[in-house]
Amino acid sequence: MDEEDGHLALGGGDDEQVHEGNLNLDNDDNDEGADDEADEELYVPPVDVIIYGINYGTRANLTEITLPEGTLEVPDYAFYDARSLRSCILPNSVLHLGKEAFTSCHSLQTINLPPNLYSIGEEAFGFSDLGSIDIPATVRFLGEGLFQDTSINSVVIPEGVTKIHDITFNSCGHLQTVVLPQTITEIGDMAFTNCHTLVSINIPDVEYIPNSCFRYNLALKTIHLPQSVKQIHEEGFSKCKSLTTINLDSVEYFGELAFENCVALSSIIINDEADLEPEAFKGCTLLEARSLKFKMTVASYFRKSHQQRIIERVSVLCATKMLLQMEMGIRPQRRRLNNDVNDEGGDVVYLNGRLAWKMLTEFHLWIKIVGFI
What we know:
The chain is an alpha/beta fold. Among the domains are: about 1-150, Leucine-rich repeat, LRR (right-handed beta-alpha superhelix), CATH 3.80.10; about 305-370, no CATH class. Helix content is about 10%, strand content about 15%. The strands form 9 sheets. The chain has a 4-stranded parallel β-sheet with strand order 6-8-9-10, with no helix packed on it. Mean pLDDT is about 75; it is low at about 1-40, about 290-305 and about 330-365.
């Protein structure tokens, strides 16, 4: 490792790595008293861009750069905050783009990636003005926050990539199209949060939708959810205000606020045995008008907590009373749904009265009421 003008620069050794600027890189494994949750020291880039011992000039004034053939990687933070950089030509020999290599390059709108590239590090293009990119088929790893808060409008993830990490496309407000390969087995938290122009997406065979994965995707209308998805975690599709329908029959668990304020959602297919956290469908007013929460089997209904059953009983009573009266075309004072003596053992249910709802003990009666709802 050579030191030039107070900056650390990578030499020619095969095993050496570059760490420019004033980043705190201390890692004492023997210090058991170290605080694992301590804030990482803010990286301050050096004035000059120095890569493999070559000084490419002042970072603030750098507008274009060509790296020499034989370069194997673009080091971590190599062009961090090079705000005037418009063009970077990478040789075919490059296999890896380092962590935050082009972060905050506000003038960089496009870049040609080398055909043998294997991996791209964390936030490599984050907070840049990157609008388009072709990811080579050789790439197998994409780091966390890779395109976070960029202007990218479309991207195809190549086959062989197995994970979309946390916040990969977070706040990509211009993203309209993204193609995910079937090799994807996991998607990270907030991977597509705040992608306001994303209209549709086909989700590969993952087991769950993580926290806030598609939160605030205001234009999202169509989602293909595979049968492999068993869980939708907290705020997974929260505030997807254009979403109208989705098949959820494979989902066994809905986290809190999973579909919060999906105000256009009017039709879903849901598993009767699914476990719903409180307010999983809060604010889905069109679904509530169709009494979604009561279209369940008796078994799943009585599996709920006592408090929740009371709330739902009152709601079912009100809806049943109103709908039956509309069906009869009358407003009876004390008209019964069944006779006082029920040969099948069902309870007497009054449409109007002080104790209109005693208890549902017969499955056939429940089915009748659900049918009205």
